Recover the amino acids of this structure.
């Protein structure tokens, strides 16, 4: 029976797809009725980007007067991690046991 049902369903889909006139969706009908009274204005595909503003440094960065390289910060972090690993390894080292 399921084969017969699938065949009927396939026939119905082919019949529906071959229809000359297809009814629009409810949203399309609603928009068509709304736009008949008040048509929408033209909308560009993509809006032009506005002027790009440059970021300013905070007052703390300006008052310091020195510009630190990002490599210095990276070296400080990696050095701290290495020091912690060495310290933990030294604390876990128990001679004589």
């Amino acid at each position: 029976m399921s084969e017969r049902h699938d065949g009927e369903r396939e026939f119905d889909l082919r019949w529906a797809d071959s229809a000359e006139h297809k009814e629009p969706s409810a949203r399309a009908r609603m928009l068509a009725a709304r736009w008949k009274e008040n048509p929408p204005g033209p909308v560009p595909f993509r809006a032009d980007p506005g002027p790009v503003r440059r970021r300013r440094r905070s007052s703390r960065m300006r008052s310091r007067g020195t510009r630190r390289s990002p490599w210095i910060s990276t070296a400080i972090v990696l050095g701290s991690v290495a020091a912690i690993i060495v310290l933990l390894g030294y604390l876990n080292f128990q001679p004589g046991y």
